[in-house]
Amino acid sequence: MHRKLTMSGSIRYATSVLSLGLFVLSFVLVSGCATQTVSAENAPMRFQIQQRALTPKNGPRDIEEAALQTGDILLSADDNDWISLGIRLVSLSPVSHAAVYIGNGNIVEAVRSGVLLGTVTGMRDEQTVIAVYRYPNLDDTQRDSLRQIALWHVGNRYSMVGVVLQAPFMLTRRLCEMPVFPGQVRYGCYHTLGVIQMPPLDTKGLFCSQFVLETFRQAGLPLTDAASRWVSPDDIMHMREGDVPSFNAKFALEYVGHLKARPPQTDPETAETLFVTRQTP
Predict the structure, then answer these.
(1) What is the pLDDT of residues 33-87, one digit of tens each?
(2) What SS3 state is found at 70?
(3) How confident is the model at residue 15 (pLDDT cuts 50, 70, 90)?
(4) Which of 13, 24, 139, 275 has its CB surrounded by the most CB atoms within 10 Å?
């Protein structure tokens, strides 16, 4: 009888440990905490926060269309669209869409019907929130190149395959963001999972963030060395100044302002992700 009770207790204990482990794993997958270290001898350890909110800590800067420059990146979300809500739920992000401004009130974006030429006015009517980011120090030649390449993509089809593959990739890559993993290990983990989970099955279609990255890459202005099909609108957002990019960013994007902001009382952007970095003296 004593042996049976002991065995029963062991089973309960093992079950409890397993349940706790699954809970911790689930928490890691959902929270997306990651560790990034900057190699520098005798550098003190400090904590750096990956900003989950689209709105800067000092509040949004409202801008008008006249403030836009060719090559600006528009990140947005539509609270009334179920696909937008689904993408934000999986990626834990305030944004689900990305577009490129090409001047004269026009944008180019990859949507479900393909890569299309649209207008800023139309985007403002459709989206709930729009924030604008800028690649630093672009000259007129580079802006013109971005405009021409973006227009060249108009008519390409939308990559539904890429979007479908993005969902499980965004979930499983949370394993790479466990606090015990330094930055370079995390990037290597992303790369491994990306190769396995995001193969180039659709070489002609583009989804929204993939279109943005390909436009900049083909203009000789890569945002990151990661494959464009691995990158989501949320990843582009984290390439901004004062944030911690999920992938290696070539340059920090400048926050220009909000073309459209959510009312403060309804703004859900409050979550933050903790990163650990070493700061040089």
Answers:
(1) 333 434 444 445 555 667 888 888 777 899 999 999 999 999 999 988 877 877 7
(2) coil
(3) very low
(4) 275
Q: Token pair 């990651």 is at which residue?
A: 34
Helix/strand/coil for 253: strand
Strand pairing report for 106-111 and 45-51:
unpaired
pLDDT attached to residue 45: 53
- Euclidean distance between CA atoms 101 and 118, whole angstroms: 9
- Look up residue 8 and give its amino acid: S
Give the tokens for residue 210.
Answer: 């993939």
Residues 165, 201: contact at Cβ < 8 Å? Answer: yes
Nearest CA to 235 out of 277, 278, 198, 180 is that of 198
Task: Residue count of the chain, please give it.
Answer: 281
- CA 102 from chain centre, in angstroms, equals 22
Directed axis angle between helix 160-172 and helix 82-91, to 10°?
A: 30
Q: At CA 158, angle to CA 156 and CA 159, rounded to 5? A: 120
